[in-house]
Design a protein that fits this description.
This protein is 32% helix and 26% strand. It is of the alpha/beta class.
Amino acid sequence: MRCRRYTRAMVLIVFDLDGTLLNRSSKITPYTRETLRRLTERGIAYTVATGRALHGAVDILQGHGFDLPQIFKNGVMIWDPAQSCYSSRHLLTVDEVGHVAEAFMTRDITPFFFTLEPGDRHAVYHPPLRQKVEYKLMKSFRRERDLPIKPIAELPADADITNISAVGEESEVRAVADLIRDEEHLVAYMGTAIEDRRLSWIDIHHGAGSKGGAVESLKQELGIEQVICFGDSDNDLSMFALADEAYAPENAKDEVKAAATAVIGHHDADGIARFLRERFEL
């Protein structure tokens, strides 16, 4: 199914969520909410490009004017809220899933398999958990992202795998990333785990699904002439590379700051919203 086209817009603003548009409590603050309202009032288009799945962002975005297609799972999927359809999906093959699962198991890390199932339903499946932090991760999927969490034995035969995630010691997580580095169609992103900042998270998905590729698709689909994006981590670098302007909050990784047009205020101090009010005289 092909989603509808939109009327031509000159500028598209693309927000990363965690560590960028959202504060440390993963919320849109009243100040940022008002800034988004002013953007809408001025007819300035905006959307999100996030590592979250649809279920992990829908409640956050609701009521804040995010009416354009939205980029989820780092570009693996594009969702059109107006038509309730995915216009783009880059799913993992059976062989790729097997290779990634083996990489995790060799490092004694439990992988979580995110699925897209008939009816656009999502769930997470996992083998037996091994570490306390994995129980925290499972609870966060259920509580914050409203996702069913099930044993791997219950994985339906008709389920597609969108991505595979895990949390563990940084050295072990990095070893997993190294094991799949030469896999042509896979890409891995790492970062500090929210559940325990002494640990690292990793997310692996199809290499064709990137924020940059998804933003380029939206640019063509929506007739956009200028892209302005905001992000804080390495999964944002692909959209920084194609954006006309790219801004990193003060809390961003050093390599993201180096790639940015400029470094602006901290994400927990409404840095993006304050910049936008000045940039567009809102």
